[in-house]
Amino acid sequence: MVLDEAGLDLLFRTARTPERWRDEPVTDDVLHRLYDLVRLGPTSGNCSPARFVFLRTADNRERLRATLSEGNVDKVLSAPVTVIVAHDPLFFDRFATLNPEPGLRAWFAADVGLAEETAFRNGTLQGGYLIMAARALGLDVLPISGFDAYAVEDSFLAGQGWRVNFLVSLGYADGQPERPRAPRLSFDDACLML
């Protein structure tokens, strides 16, 4: 099976980062369907380190205000949902459920550097799955890296011990962006065939 042209347009070619959001909520059902897709994406050893915090209320999104770069404030505060894409540094404690291979938990528990690298890399991968799954479900997506990670962790993740990677605002775009899509590198500029 291959996605048809409409599917490729939805995920890549016509998908754009929204500048404004419609006043339309993202339902609990959609968020559950979103995660049900995200969790199926592959991670190394099925480690599944990503953790997602869905900020749905205006009060919780307002708590983000002080952590955001100035250019992101209005876009984030007006979005129906903003997701904190994080990872659990102790992801290996879930291996009894996710991958009970003997000795695997101890291997990661004994090497903090390896565990952190694995959690960050695979959590980032799962954040990418979140973006693509959201588009597949008809949501518009605004990935955000302009924020104070330590402040987000202090405000939202302190009790969990999770580490923030990036933010993603979700909703339904109010119109098309006014600016044309920014250029992308060509195959020859970005790829080697060896």
UniProtKB/TrEMBL annotation:
It is an enzyme of class 1 (oxidoreductase). Keywords: Oxidoreductase. It comes from the Bacteria. Gene3D superfamilies: NADH Oxidase. This is Malonic semialdehyde reductase. PANTHER family: MALONIC SEMIALDEHYDE REDUCTASE RUTE-RELATED. Its EC number is 1.1.1.298. GO terms for molecular function: 3-hydroxypropionate dehydrogenase (NADP+) activity. Residues 21-172 form the Nitroreductase domain. SUPFAM superfamilies: FMN-dependent nitroreductase-like. Pfam families: Nitroreductase (PF00881).
